[in-house]
Amino acid sequence: MSSRRTAAVTGSLVAASFSAVVILSGTAGAEDEGPASSKGGKVVDEAPAGVKLTTLLPEKISVDNGSEKTALTATVKNEGNKDSGKIQLLVVGFDGLTVKNVQGCSPIAENNLPEGSNSGFSCPIDNLAAGKSKSYAVDATYDLGKTGKICLPVQASDGKKTFWQQGPVPFGTTNPSPDAPATPLLLGTDNEPVSPGKPDSPGGKELPKTGPARDLLPLGAAGASLLAAGAAGMWWSRRRPARQEV
């Protein structure tokens, strides 16, 4: 084969490889959050007749191991057959998960945050039509050395009733990856912080465990975490003083 033909073939292979990398990278980014889920959600107070309010969180988020930054989408939905009227969505962080900003929403004053939470934003909604939903971009940080939870209550505009509450539900992983650029976290899974002294943690004395027993851990952790979230139950509507409409 001549050197000219060799160079042409090599160039084609490089171009093909580059295209594949671009396509794969774009796909990975698009699928970062995975499907949306109402996991950990519950009705608290009865909504007006014909109104059925729920929320959705991504099944998967990704935390940058260097900056600890993450982003997710919080969605409120009216699955009923009548308009909601004035309501508000709250986005509240707990433990290692701190909500830094919610697009189009206002920070909740520190003295109005529920006990145990570290941050929160209020998103007033004038009306959510039947069958419609509204999504908000959420910027947050996650300290991977801790567990982290998020909560999405949907309230009347005066804060006196909570029609729906998702959480506090955890995001986490049972298989920390401190050496990777980012750590994927799953909704409904208690986070297992990286611990250098733990035998099955990266850098420990034993090799990481694999196989069926290891694969069953996320399901067990998720079950335990959701039971805990259910026990926390009605913390917002029972503990929190009524708020003025934002």
Helices, strands, pairings?
Elements: H1 3-30, E1 36-37, E2 41-43, E3 53-58, E4 60-64, E5 69-78, E6 87-95, E7 97-102, E8 106-107, E9 117-125, E10 133-142, E11 148-156, E12 162-172, E13 182-187, H2 212-215, H3 217-232, H4 235-239
Antiparallel strand pairs: 1-3, 2-12, 3-5, 4-13, 5-10, 6-9, 6-11, 7-10, 8-9, 11-12, 12-13
**Global Rg:** 22 Å
Count of distinct strands: 13
Order of helices and strands: HEEEEEEEEEEEEEHHH
Strand content: 35-45%
Unreliably modeled segments: 2-31, 197-235, 241-246
Main beta-sheet annotation: 8 strands, antiparallel
Classify the secondary structure makeup into a structural class: alpha+beta
Overall geometric form:
elongated
Query: What is the end-to-end distance?
Result: 74 Å
Q: Please state the average pLDDT score.
A: 77
Number of helices: 4
What percent of residues adopt helix (DSSP H or I)? Answer: 10-25%
Keywords: Signal
Protein name: LPXTG cell wall anchor domain-containing protein
Region (Disordered): 167-216
Signal peptide: 1-30
